[in-house]
């Protein structure tokens, strides 16, 4: 990976700020429940209130609860003789809805509140994309271009501005891929350090390791162990790059 110069972070951060401006500007519009937001915002609010999904009044054909929410009335829960009868059908794992619930908790049950977490996830994914592409291509320009393309992508833009689960799925998959790429470089770095051991052993084994005079072999034999000790120290501190710009996984 290229050295983490000022531009190594400034470029991706600039692209990320551009994407953030596009996603957060007028995030509360349209002031309505859009598409499948009807399912997820109520499920998220139920998790926030009760810890489990709960049925609301109305049906998919007649979304009474949606109209109540837009009117500011949050008494949307269906009344049942027992709590078990009011349990809602769960079609998706809860993490995405919990992330939506954080925005509802911070900003209230409003369009901005339930779309906030998706906009944050979409914005952070731009930064991750730029940094991962930079790491893979060894080019700051290509990394920033990848982030810019994601920031301007129409599908990503729409999903980042609606309270759907797709953007959270994309975010965590991309974050996992970034960890795999970083781990690959970390493994390469460790093998590069380990590669000095056979070299030192070859020198210590005899004449075949380093051709030339006895004095040359003695010099190399004293330098390699010192380089190995320095490499161990630098890898531990994150300074050493094995000559190819590799960095530990924490330097995404």
Automatic annotation (TrEMBL):
GO terms for cellular component: endomembrane system; membrane. Residues 14-182 form the ArnT-like N-terminal domain. One of its GO terms (molecular function) is mannosyltransferase activity. One of its GO terms (biological process) is protein O-linked glycosylation. This is Polyprenol-phosphate-mannose--protein mannosyltransferase. Keywords: Glycosyltransferase, Membrane, Transferase, Transmembrane, Transmembrane helix. The chain crosses the membrane at residues 7-25, 112-133, 140-158, 164-182. It comes from Nonomuraea thailandensis. Pathway: Protein modification; protein glycosylation. Belongs to the glycosyltransferase 39 family. It is found in: Endomembrane system. It is a multi-pass membrane protein. Its main location: membrane.
